[in-house]
Amino acid sequence: MRFASPAACASRLALAIALAAIPAAAVAADATADPTTLDAVQVRAAGIGSLKAERARTPGHVAVIDAEDFRERTVTHMADALRYVPGVWTESGTGGDAIFISSRGSNLDATGYDSNGIKLFQDGLPVTTADGNNHNRFLDPAAARYAVVALGANALTYGASTLGGAIDFISPTARNGVPDEIAFTAGSHGLVAGRTAVGGVSGGIDGRITLEGKRRDGYREHGRQERRGAHANLGWQVSEGFGLRFFAAHVDNDEELAGPLTRAQFDADPYQAQPSAITGNFQLNVRSSRLAAKGAWDIDGRSRLEFGVSWEDQRLYHPIVDKVMVDFDGPGPLQPVEVFSLLREADQRTWGGMVRYSIRLGDHDVLAGANLADTREKGGNFRNDGGRRNGRTALTDKRSDSVEAFVVDRWRFAPDWTLVYGAQGVLTGRDVRSTDVASGARVNARADYTSFNPRLGVVRALTPSSELFASASRLYEAPTTFELEDDVRGSGVLDAMHGTVIEMGLRGGTAAQMDAAHWHWDVSLYYARIRDEILSIDDPSAPGTSLSANIDRTLHAGLEALAGGSFPFGGGAHRIEPLVSVAYNAFFFDGDAVYGDNRLPAAPRYAVRGEAMYRHAGGFFAGPTLDLVGPRYADFGNGYRVGSYRLLGLRAGVDRGRWTVFGEVRNLLDEDCVGVLTVRDRAGIDDALLQAGEPRSAYVGVRVRF
């Protein structure tokens, strides 16, 4: 294979659209285009109501998050923002932006650092690289107005070809109800964070700019972080039915990494750094700049076209393995020799694009679209001398391209019944070249991956505010360049992961009223059989690197539930508002020749997160928070078990419309717990695998709106 040229990418796009458009053509041929009988809801603006309407037509679990909820608590990274999304397990190893993320059992191996398995979007435009990795950075949730989390195959309407689904962060604009504001947060472990945003509307032009900064010492030794960023968008309403929006962002993030600890080190002091993380000065420093443009055209009363393009440049500086010294002659006269160390440096550029066309034809609501991405990364590996380059050891050149085309029809074939059917076409390529500087030896892993992924589901409205859903879908995810680079066969090529998932659930709520109690709930059960799942183990001969291979069969199943309510008393002046998120995970090998039916590591068996807020009509709120996290394994052999833990917290504040102040205490009882762990094949008691979760911490924040 040769890396795809722009012309080849265009031909791939055309072919993928043609493959995925077959069901749409059938719908268009049979549907009656009578605008007087339309009763489907079409998403025409990124408001919370339209996002929930889109969720209601999806036969599976989709979470819609209003970022206004973040203003009442401490949200400094993505794990904080996704706290109440069941099925998504996110934790930070030091409290910084470098997080571990897994959705429905994705990313459960030693290459957790590539954070594959879930595709990130910003305003509908792809942010994740063309090969599916999120290694360098995550989006800042505080810079979002809304977030949509579509788990697993429910990300079909985003075109995402991943096991775990997609997350779309929707930017605040001067037109979507976000005022000018100044926000400030400070607290434990040296945290100081500030944000200011201003914007305005003048006729058909609107604009908004946000400046933000964060500094923290971290709750672990060698966990300092400094981040500075600017985000801006400019909208132009060219005509009544046509608008353009332009986006620009720059983020400069420097983050120290504390590294994992052995069990003995963790028991002695869970907040110390791994000694080699200090001597090797482990860091994850990323400079990223992004430009994007998006257009929306309401063609007529029943059809709409959206399109966009984005470009992002990321510069990575990443010392990650300290010197591994070997004394070959024992106590003899020769000095120990460095046999391995690692500092990665790379310049990565990604072009992305998307197109979405929606049309209502009688009882049919058809959405077709495509994502296009092209990523080029050039860089190299160096020996690491205390965080400084100490001679290049390898040259790397990674190239990947991706086209994901999809079509889905939501057909209201009977009162209260909606049939949802569609398909996705995927064409993606990888070209990974690595040259050893000392020997001149070259390794080149190249492959193309194609797939056609159908989906069939149904939504049954039980009441005006509740519905039952069920679906069956094909899952598919090609390997990342990191996984190809670490293929256990050297220059071999990994197969793509694929499988089938079935899902059913119930969601809804009672009508919200000021003087009456109301509930809302969302419950999903899913069961997936995966073939050729790519799992990686730490390479014992080169710490910090991995060996990847396809596993014949695995099972991913689980229960995801979110429930909340509001209960007034005292004439409506007081309310109690509980909220609980529950996930039960069953991720297993399926009769594997080596691992049998062992559990997959890294993800806890269950995770329960909740709160119970008291709210007064005058704006005061207060209440406890709770975390119950089940046990998990740190190895495929299931010989290294990490126990469960329970955390209590408390938060309170006052929201008076124009201003909000809050205080939050986390881990009130100061329990020691493991947040993130490193996965091995068969782990030993002396292996360094454990990174502590946050100790007792207190934060205060203020937000002023103009």
TrEMBL record:
Keywords: Cell outer membrane, Ion transport, Iron, Iron transport, Membrane, Receptor, Signal, TonB box, Transmembrane, Transmembrane beta strand, Transport. InterPro entries: Beta-barrel_TonB (IPR000531), Beta-barrel_TonB_sf (IPR036942), Plug_dom (IPR012910), Plug_dom_sf (IPR037066), TonB-dep_rcpt-like (IPR039426). Residues 56-166 form the TonB-dependent receptor plug domain. Residues 384-668 form the TonB-dependent receptor-like beta-barrel domain. The keyword Ion transport applies. GO terms for cellular component: cell outer membrane. Residues 1-28 form the signal peptide. Gene3D superfamilies: TonB-dependent receptor, beta-barrel domain, TonB-dependent receptor, plug domain. It is a multi-pass membrane protein. GO terms for biological process: iron ion transport. It comes from the Bacteria. It is found in: Cell outer membrane. Pfam families: Plug (PF07715), TonB_dep_Rec_b-barrel (PF00593). SUPFAM superfamilies: Porins. The keyword Iron applies. Belongs to the TonB-dependent receptor family. This is TonB-dependent receptor. It comes from Pseudoxanthomonas broegbernensis. The lineage of its organism: Bacteria, Pseudomonadati, Pseudomonadota, Gammaproteobacteria, Lysobacterales.
